[in-house]
TrEMBL record:
PANTHER family: AMINO ACID IMPORT ATP-BINDING PROTEIN, GLUTAMATE_ASPARTATE IMPORT ATP-BINDING PROTEIN GLTL. It comes from Herbiconiux moechotypicola. This is Amino acid ABC transporter ATP-binding protein. InterPro entries: AAA+_ATPase, ABC_ATPase_HisP-typ, ABC_transporter-like_ATP-bd, ABC_transporter-like_CS, MetN_ABC_transporter-like, P-loop_NTPase. It is a peripheral membrane protein. It holds the Pfam family ABC_tran. Residues 21-255 form the ABC transporter domain. Keywords: Amino-acid transport, ATP-binding, Cell membrane, Membrane, Nucleotide-binding, Transport. The keyword rRNA-binding does not apply. CDD domains: ABC_HisP_GlnQ. It is found in: Cell membrane. It comes from the Bacteria. Belongs to the ABC transporter superfamily.
Length: 259
């Protein structure tokens, strides 16, 4: 089991070898419910981490905490040398550096595909419309939906919408992309077109944390699998090791049900 030491001295700035994300002894409750239990791990630059585990094990909360869509009770989350603050301008900046793709696409329904992709770069990154549109078209082309640019999201298939959502997050030039079950809401025939885009991103060196039940994707693209159960990281290993020789009883049980 490969486990990086995330409790090492935090490094500030953009040192090449320092992990991009360090999650150190993080705990989180929802009322009485203890949803993240002493979660410690780190993600290297360019690394693709797949998070799997039973429903309710805390995978989404883990992702949302990294983006500060959820607060944490204790511990620290550091992105590129900066400890995630509770609020304020610095938080907005850090959040802009972390792309997020949700199960439910979450595109702006009353804006065109192109507007969906240019909105944040023009407002948050203060790019000119022209520059933002040129970059958006490039990204839409990369995910294979450039010809849909002037349509509304509702005119697209689920797979196309999710590819737009990925292009939208890339438009901010994020340091990291979190994808929380990006294919779970898709009809089966659309899953591969989204997974293929994700594999392409992984090959291009994007740092990604992906919550998914797509074990084929994990085997193809992940550098590491994190298995969560009941709010804890139960096991961390390369995909080969995890799928072929899971160590913990919970991981064995989980895999026996899904494989
Ligand atoms: P997963 O993504 O692995 O299915 P979640 O992180 O969504 O798990 O949820 C972990 C636990 O926290 C579950 O028991 C869930 O019901 C609970 N939970 C999630 N979000 C909230 C919330 N906003 N308020 C209260 N409980 C929540
Ligand atoms: Mg979830």
């Amino acid at each position: 089991m490969k486990r990086m030491d995330a409790s090492a001295t935090p490094v500030r700035g953009t040192a090449g070898d320092a992990p991009l994300v360090v999650i150190d002894h993080v705990d989180k409750h929802f009322g009485e419910l203890h949803v993240l239990k002493d979660v410690t791990t780190s993600v290297a630059r360019g690394e693709v981490v797949v998070v799997i585990g039973p429903s309710g094990s805390g995978k989404s909360t883990f992702c949302r905490a990294i983006n500060r869509l959820e607060t944490i009770d204790s511990g620290t989350i550091t992105i590129d040398g900066e400890v995630l603050p509770k609020e304020g301008k610095q938080l907005a900046q850090l959040r802009a550096d972390v792309g997020m793709v949700f199960q439910s696409f979450n595109l702006f329904a009353h804006k065109t595909v192109l507007e969906n992709v240019t909105l944040a770069p023009t407002r948050v990154r203060k790019r000119s419309r022209k520059e933002a549109e040129a970059r958006a078209m490039e990204l839409l082309d990369r995910v294979g939906v450039a010809n849909q640019a002037s349509k509304l999201p509702s005119q697209l298939s689920g797979g196309q919408q999710q590819r737009v959502a990925i292009a939208r997050s890339l438009a901010m030039d994020p340091k990291l992309i979190l994808l929380d079950e990006p294919t779970s809401a898709l009809d089966p025939e659309m899953i591969n077109e989204v997974l293929d885009v994700m594999v392409g991103l992984a090959r291009d060196g994007m740092t990604m944390i992906v919550v998914t039940h797509e074990m084929g994707f994990a085997r193809r693209a992940a550098d590491r699998v994190i298995f969560m159960a009941d709010g804890r990281i139960e096991e961390e290993a390369t995909p080969e090791k995890f799928f072929d020789a899971p160590q913990s009883p919970r991981a064995k049980d989980f895999l026996s049900k899904i494989l």
